[in-house]
Write a structure and sequence with these properties.
Number of helices: 8
Shape: globular
Strand order of the largest sheet: 1-2-5-6-9-10-11-12
Strand content: 15-25%
CATH superfamily: Aldolase class I
Oligomer: single chain
Number of strands: 14
Distance between the termini: 24 Å
Order of helices and strands: EHEEEHEEEEHEHEHEHEEEHH
Largest sheet: 8 strands, parallel, barrel
Structural class: alpha/beta
CATH class: Alpha Beta
C-alpha cells in the first residue's frame, strides 16, 4: 500500500500544561512556531485550541483569529482545523469561532464518558454545529469516541446535515471511553466502509496509545493524528521535546510501511479542500 498518508498535529489541546510538559505551546506565538516546525516536516493539518494567559482553555474568537492569521502567514497551504470540543467551552459557545471560516472544524456527533465527567454533545447542539459548518463552508472532522457515533454520522449524512466525503477520526484510549482495542479498530473501519463508503478516516490514540494508533492507521490505509494535545511523552520514561518530535515518529512509521507523507496540496485534494 502506497497511498499518501495525511498527518494532523494537535498542538495544544485544552488539558496539558507546561507543568505537565514545558514543550506544550500555550501562547499564540508558541503555537504558530510549533505549527511551522511540524508543517516543514510534513504535517498538513493543524488541530487548534486556544488558551488564556494563565493557560486555562479559551473559546475567544479573537484569539482564534490571531492564531489562524499567524498560521496562514507562516504555514501557507496547511489545513487549519479549529476545535469545537467541550473541554474549551459549553453549549453553543463552542461554535463562536466558526464565522472565521477555517478549512475544517472538529465535530463530535454524540456523547460519551471522559475521565472525570460526561462529554455532552446533545442532538440540538450537534445539529446546530453541523448547520454552521455548512453555512461557512467548513469541512467537519467527525470525532468518533464510540461505535454509535459512526451510525449517527451516517444518519446525519442521509439527512444532508453532513456533506459526502466525510473525514472520520477514531479516538481511542480516553479513560472511561473506547480503549485502543484492535478488534474494535477493525470493526470501526468496516463499519465506515459499509455506512460511509466515500469517507476518509484517521485515528487518534491518547497517551501511550498514540504510537499504537499511528501504526495501525498507517498499516491499514488510514491517516493519522499526533501531537502534544493527545500525548506528552516520546516514550514511557521521557517527555516529548516538541510536537515535531511526535510528527517525526509518524513519518518514520510511514516510511516503514511505504506510505508517502501527503503534502498539503495532496491532503487538500484528498479532503476536497482544493
Amino acid at each position: 500500500m502506497n497511498d499518501p498518508c495525511i498527518i494532523c498535529v494537535a498542538i495544544t489541546g485544552s488539558v496539558p500544561t507546561k507543568k505537565d510538559n514545558p514543550a506544550v505551546p500555550i501562547s499564540i506565538s508558541e503555537q504558530i512556531e510549533s505549527t511551522q516546525e511540524c508543517f516543514e516536516l510534513g504535517a498538513s493539518i493543524v488541530h487548534c485550541h486556544v488558551r488564556n494567559g494563565d493557560g486555562t482553555p479559551s473559546i475567544d474568537p479573537h484569539k482564534y483569529q490571531l492564531l489562524k492569521e499567524g498560521i496562514e502567514k507562516y504555514c501557507p497551504g496547511i489545513i487549519i482545523q479549529l476545535s469545537t470540543g467541550g473541554r474549551s467551552g459549553h453549549g453553543f459557545d463552542r461554535g463562536k469561532m466558526l464565522p472565521l471560516k477555517p478549512d475544517m472544524a472538529s465535530l463530535t456527533v454524540g456523547s460519551n464518558n471522559f475521565p472525570t465527567r460526561v462529554y455532552e454533545n446533545p442532538p440540538d447542539l450537534v445539529d446546530w454545529l453541523a448547520e454552521e459548518m455548512i453555512k461557512y463552508s467548513i469541512k467537519p472532522e467527525i470525532e468518533i469516541f464510540d461505535l454509535s457515533h459512526i451510525h449517527q454520522a451516517a444518519f446525519l449524512a442521509k439527512q444532508n446535515k453532513l456533506k459526502e466525503n466525510l473525514y472520520i477520526q477514531f479516538v481511542m484510549g480516553v479513560k472511561n471511553a473506547m480503549p485502543a482495542d484492535f478488534n474494535v479498530f477493525e470493526y470501526y473501519i468496516s463499519t465506515v466502509k459499509r455506512l460511509l463508503p466515500k469517507a476518509s478516516w484517521c485515528g487518534a490514540g491518547i497517551g501511550k496509545n498514540q504510537k499504537v494508533l499511528n501504526e495501525w492507521c498507517i498499516k491499514h490505509g488510514g491517516h493519522v493524528r499526533t501531537g502534544l494535545e493527545d500525548n506528552i511523552r516520546i516514550d514511557r520514561d521521557n517527555l516529548a521535546p516538541s510536537n515535531a518530535s511526535l510528527v517525526k515518529i509518524a513519518i518514520e512509521l510511514c516510511e516503514r510501511y511505504s506510505r508517502p507523507v501527503a503534502s498539503w496540496k495532496k491532503a487538500r485534494q484528498i479532503l476536497e479542500l482544493v
